[in-house]
């Protein structure tokens, strides 16, 4: 028979948005030494956001965001969504563009009517428009060509392709962002880089509290990701996580859990993806976050139905409260 206190405990858990699939794991949660979080989709939203903007002299951040958002208007790319959202947040009004083109794997380009940026527009005799002259014919008639400007947004690979050198200030900005694991895209007016935008993982608001509450209970928090060391370090520093495992291949995630267990630690793993399933199975307490894939849910001992990482701490407290009574 199921002890009464256990039955009460699981129904209490259910009321708190936790689906307990394995009662023994639920009981062990009160003794956890280490909680390992998957990064993407668990601690971060799995999206990118614009975290920094740089400009050349004479341009404001709003100028750069406005034009970049205009050119990205029709792109589905995650980078485009981040730029449009950043522009929306600033409340700038976005000019219309013509002749939008996705430059596969490099960026986007479009033609903007007059007023593209603060400085007077020089007639377009750029290397960029020469080498891509076919596309210009479709962007409009030649009569008022001087009032139009080709504007592009793209990564370092677009600059290389167009043989454009960013000025010193933009290069320094890009180096610094890169060292923090952030991606950089540039805004080009004709063949001049006039701004740069740094993009980073969007950290979920709940993650800060989730980690702090576990640490305040004396539990070590670690983060596991397939992303680069730079990206991992930036997110871990932001969240106050001491231990990170970066550049971990999907098939090696469970090895990291085993390593911790070999150090005599009782380990929980929190994840959402198919990639996380073996690690969830390996962990003493496997915790799937609610939005997770079926495979993650099937591999977990507890499912956090509300998709809230703060529920990990609540789970530990609930386990401690319930099972103390049994002894
Ligand atoms: P990934 O899927 O790795 O982002 P893509 O082929 O989509 O690869 O893009 C490669 C790079 O090209 C991006 O990292 C970025 O630098 C640039 N890029 C692609 N699309 C865009 C876009 N819409 N806006 C800005 N930069 C872009
Ligand atoms: Mg994930």
From TrEMBL:
It comes from the Archaea. The keyword NAD does not apply. It is found in: Cell membrane. Keywords: ATP-binding, Cell membrane, Ion transport, Magnesium, Membrane, Metal-binding, Nucleotide-binding, Phosphoprotein, Translocase, Transmembrane, Transmembrane helix, Transport. Its main location: membrane. Residues 131-147 have a biased composition (Acidic residues). Residues 115-130 have a biased composition (Low complexity). Residues 109-149 are annotated as: Disordered. Belongs to the cation transport ATPase (P-type) (TC 3.A.3) family. Type IB subfamily. This is Heavy metal translocating P-type ATPase. It comes from Natronoglomus mannanivorans. The chain holds residues 426 to 752 of 813 of the full protein.
């Amino acid at each position: 028979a199921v002890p009464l206190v256990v039955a009460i405990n699981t129904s209490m858990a259910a009321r708190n948005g936790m689906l307990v699939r394995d009662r023994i794991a639920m009981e062990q949660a009160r003794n956890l030494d280490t909680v390992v979080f998957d990064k993407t989709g668990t601690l971060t939203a799995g999206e990118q956001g614009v975290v920094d903007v740089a400009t050349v002299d004479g341009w404001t951040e709003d100028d750069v965001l406005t034009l970049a958002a205009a050119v990205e208007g029709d792109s589905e790319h995650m980078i485009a969504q981040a730029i449009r959202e950043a522009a929306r947040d600033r409340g700038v009004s976005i000019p219309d563009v013509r002749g939008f083109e996705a430059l596969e794997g490099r960026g986007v380009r479009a033609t903007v009517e007059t007023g593209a940026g603060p400085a007077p527009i020089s007639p377009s005799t750029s290397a960029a428009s020469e080498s891509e002259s076919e596309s210009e014919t479709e962007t409009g008639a030649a009569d008022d060509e001087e009032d139009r400007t080709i504007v592009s947004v793209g990564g370092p690979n677009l600059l290389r392709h167009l043989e454009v050198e960013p000025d010193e200030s933009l290069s320094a900005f890009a180096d610094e962002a890169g060292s923090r694991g952030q991606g950089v895209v540039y805004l080009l007016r004709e063949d001049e880089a006039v701004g740069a935008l740094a993009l980073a993982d969007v950290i979920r608001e709940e993650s800060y509290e989730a980690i702090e509450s576990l640490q305040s209970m004396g539990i070590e928090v670690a983060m596991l990701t397939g992303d680069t060391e730079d990206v991992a370090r930036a997110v871990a520093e932001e969240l106050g996580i001491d231990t990170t495992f970066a550049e971990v291949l999907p098939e090696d995630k469970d090895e990291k859990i085993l390593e911790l267990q070999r150090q005599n630690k009782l380990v929980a793993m929190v994840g959402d993806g198919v990639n996380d399933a073996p690690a969830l199975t390996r962990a003493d307490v496997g915790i799937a976050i609610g939005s997770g894939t079926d495979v993650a849910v099937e591999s977990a001992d507890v499912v956090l139905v509300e998709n809230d990482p703060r529920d990990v701490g609540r789970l530990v407290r609930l386990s401690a409260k319930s099972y103390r009574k049994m002894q």
